[in-house]
Amino acid sequence: MNSAENRPVTNIAVMGTSQVGKSALTVRFLTRRFIGEYCNIEAVYTHCVAATQGDAVLLNIWDCPCREDERRPWASGHESRITWADAFLLVYSVCDRDSFNAALQMAQALRDARRPAGHAARAPAVVVVVGNKRDLQHARAVGTQEARALTAALGCGFFETSAAESRDDAETVFQALLGAVSGKRRGGGPKACRPPMGKRVLGLRSLLKTLSMLFLRK
Ligand SMILES: Nc1nc2c(ncn2[C@@H]2O[C@H](COP(=O)(O)OP(=O)(O)OP(=O)(O)O)[C@@H](O)[C@H]2O)c(=O)[nH]1
């Protein structure tokens, strides 16, 4: 067994309604870049990160794209994500109240799904709600204090980000998720897990290739 196989693995599902910046945040975290236009592909990115607290972690990030008309992305086909993920990043746009309402409903649905009635309590997932597009202050439709209070009431972490303007916001969010997951795991040992069945697994090299294809298209 090599050292990579001994690394703790953390699975993160990035969810939210369409056009809120799920791919932008994921790509910003993985490459430190904002390219403005993202392929609408569903992919699991595998990446090794040095966690702020503790050793290196192998991260699987499932960027779940959402169709334009899909206002309830948690309503169907999400069971595999719920069982697969250690943590959920629920993204909304601070300029789009519907996307915020959807993120709250998603957080609620995750909480209910991870604690099925009549079953022994299962470890609740780490859920962080992220209000993205903080740079678009003139178009803001969701207040910071309101969002902080409502997400806290659901037991979620909360951040506001700008994938477009900040190089550090995405890093802060993903590191907070990693810290919360490893905090929960302490004593339980690393989880052995794989990318979800049937999903395309991309390393950083494939992601960079996809990004350079996008640049060349422009
Ligand atoms: N101003 C601003 N625009 C952003 C930001 N993040 C993303 N965008 C833009 O918002 C649009 C949607 O971004 P994506 O990352 O593709 O959004 P998504 O949630 O992955 O969208 P789907 O694939 O449709 O689910 C793109 O035009 C991005 O350039 C941000 O922080 N600020």
Describe the structure.
The protein has 218 residues and is of the alpha/beta class. The protein contains seven helices and seven strands; from the N terminus they run αβαββαβαβαβαβα. The protein has helices at 3-6, 22-31, 79-84, 97-114, 144-153, 169-185, 204-217, and strands at 9-15, 43-50, 56-63, 87-93, 126-132, 157-160, 201-202. The protein has a seven-stranded mixed beta sheet with strand order 6-5-4-1-3-2-7, with helices on both faces. Helix 5 (144-153) links the parallel strand 5 (126-132) and strand 6. Helix 2 (22-31) crosses helix 6. The longest helix is centred in the middle third of the chain and has 18 residues, at 97-114. It is globular, with a radius of gyration of 17 Å. The protein starts with a helix and ends with a helix. The model is unreliable at 189-195 (pLDDT under 50).
Secondary-structure blueprint:
Layout: H1 3-6, E1 9-15, H2 22-31, E2 43-50, E3 56-63, H3 79-84, E4 87-93, H4 97-114, E5 126-132, H5 144-153, E6 157-160, H6 169-185, E7 201-202, H7 204-217
Parallel strand pairs: 1-3, 1-4, 2-7, 4-5, 5-6
Antiparallel strand pairs: 2-3
Helix pairs in contact: 2-6
The structure holds guanosine-5'-triphosphate.
Q: What letter string, H or E per element, gives the SSE order?
A: HEHEEHEHEHEHEH
| Continuous helix count | 7
Q: Calculate Rg over CA atoms.
A: 17 Å
Main sheet: strand order: 6-5-4-1-3-2-7
Q: Which structural class fits the helix and strand makeup?
A: alpha/beta
User: Portion of residues in helices?
Assistant: 25-40%
The largest sheet, given as strand count, sense and whether it forms a barrel, is: 7 strands, mixed
Shape: globular
Poorly predicted tracts of residues: 189-195
**Terminus-to-terminus distance:** 44 Å
List cofactors, ions and other ligands: guanosine-5'-triphosphate
Round the mean pLDDT to the nearest integer and report it: 80
Q: What is the number of beta strands?
A: 7
Strand content bin: 15-25%
